[in-house]
Write a structure and sequence with these properties.
elongated; 2 helices; alpha+beta
Length: 142
């Protein structure tokens, strides 16, 4: 084959490849992004197998601050094992359940839980434990 014919063949193949690459359809609907977990949150309820705790009936506090650089700080007096600082990542729900996955490292210990944000002002952390099934509820701090 001559150099000109080879160039034409390559150009035709290039055009065909580019045209096919532009016709890709999305696999499914793209779910809307949930409200952001970034910001300050104040604990107001913990439920579980034997628990129905509030700041009022325990005299305890629990405050979370999630930063845009994927760091967070947990402060308060509810349980010293829950307090400290660390890093986090979020995996968004793709099933339509509305429950996303929060993975974090707190004081060097990895952990994770399901989370949901409702009305952009209520954060639920669900540890889905078979032992006590603790769920923490937080209000967004304005």
């Amino acid at each position: 084959l001559t150099k000109i014919k080879m160039t034409k063949i390559i150009l035709v193949l290039l055009v065909v490849c580019l045209a096919n690459g532009c016709n890709k359809q999305p696999v499914g609907p793209i779910p809307p992004l949930p409200p952001s977990i970034i910001g300050e949150w104040e604990w107001y309820l913990r439920t579980g197998f034997f628990a129905y705790d509030t700041p009022l009936n325990t005299g305890k506090t629990y405050h979370l601050t999630f930063n845009s650089d994927s760091t967070f700080v947990a402060t308060g007096t509810l349980d010293s094992r829950l307090m400290g600082n660390g890093t986090f990542s979020v995996r968004l729900d793709t099933t339509g359940s509305g429950v996303h996955r929060l993975s974090y490292i707190l004081n060097g210990r990895p952990n994770g839980c399901g989370y949901r944000i409702r009305n952009n002002d209520t954060l639920t952390l669900d540890y889905n434990s078979y032992i006590d099934g603790q769920v923490f509820y937080f209000s967004r701090v304005p």
